[in-house]
Amino acid sequence: MKTIASLLFVLAFSTPAFAQLTCAAWPQWNTFKTHFISPKGRVIDLGSEYDITTSEGQSYALFFALVANDQASFDTLLEWTEVNLSEGDLSTRLPAWKWGIKEGEGKILDSNPASDSDLWIAYTLSQAAKLWQDRRYAVLSSVLAERIIREETAQLPKLGITLLPGPNGFKDENTWKLNPSYAPLFILKQFAELYPHSPWQQLHDNSANMLISTAAKGFSPDWVNYNAEQGFFHDKHAPALGSYNAIRVYLWASLMAEDAPYKSALMKQLTPMVEHIVSSGKVPLETQTVTGKVSGTGPIGFGAALLPFLAAENASQSITALQQQMMMDTGFISSRYYDSVLYLFGTSALNKRFSINKNGELITNWSAECQ
User: Which residues are within 8 A (CB) of 18 and not within 5 positions of it... i.e. 6 or more apart?
Assistant: First the structure.
């Protein structure tokens, strides 16, 4: 017998007009909350050592709560994040990236912030301020944005201002280690609009250069090194491999508006991923970014993440095939955090539950269609 969660999963694909029919209601978000979010607002990576919570998980859940028009959950998530990851004050400390239950005590396990999570938190707060007409969120967003520029960027020779994965541990002498999936261009563009006197526009343009340059064969890497002499390069510390991190590069690119700066160039650069899926019927687990070779079959979340990318390329048969695979394997919606996150992003974008305009502003169906 199918569980209620499984039936809701199937319903998500039952009609192309699903988003228009439901407007504010989002059963898949409620399922995610039930399985992965504690009553106090902690997103739990089930089955992980120490039942960890990451700032990434908190940031994505905040975004989903906004898309769902669920301000109560949003505030609960925000409060837990501030109290437990920022020592009680997000305005004075960027959130630690990892927290967990160790030796019976809940505590920070790694205090180094993660810039992608910080960007998503600041971005979601800025959009919540507009959509919910609450200035508190705007003030906190601006403070976080300023701290990100100050603490998580660096002036790289011949490249300019660049987003680092975190404040500490990503520079070795004259070489920096970067993560392409940490820099969604639409977030950087929105901050360039909101804070025109800060260097967000330069960071946006330099990040676009990095994303395109590091995917020479059409596949983005998880990690890449940079120095003035070699430019972007790979070694044993940053192998030419794309997988669990890089899958988000395709997702973020597909969320950009058609007329957004660099959208066309980036989508064109990443076309080989679509071509492989269309020809093989599979989303690869790993891609070799220098040779262009692919291997393995990615988990269900990889396919979900690529749904809006495939839609942008009019690959309807591949979308149908991936949706059928998802309906045959619904176990992830109650046990696998990362798959579930990618699923929520991919399906809600595909079903037009939200969109992002050329300036990076979030448009939700509950604000645009259901008023």
Answer: 11, 12, 351
pLDDT band for position 328 (cuts 50, 70, 90): confident
The answer to whether residue 56 is catalytic is yes
Distance linking the first and last C-alpha atoms of the chain: 38
- Taking the C-alpha atoms of residue 20 and residue 272, their distance in angstroms, rounded to an integer, is 32
Six-digit token pair at 292?
């262009």
Per annotation, catalytic residue among 45, 70, 116, 222: 116
Say which residue the tokens 């595909």 belong to: 350
Say if residues 22 and 15 touch (Cβ distance below 8 Å): no
Q: CB neighbours of 291 closer than 8 A, spacing ≥ 6?
A: 217, 240
Encoded tokens for 325: 């695979």
Bridge-based pairing state of the strands 224-227 and 175-178: antiparallel
Q: What SS3 class is residue 150?
A: helix
Which of 45, 56, 152, 313 is labelled catalytic? 56
Annotation says 79 is catalytic: no
Look at residue 369 in the predicted model and tell me its pLDDT.
59
Query: Would the pLDDT of 300 be above 90?
Result: yes
Residue 281 identity: G
pLDDT band at 331 (very low <50, low <70, confident <90, very high): confident
Q: Using 50, 70 and 90 to split pLDDT, how confident is the model at 370? A: low
The helix (H) or strand (E) run that includes residue 366 is helix 365-368
* Paired tokens of 39: 């009553």
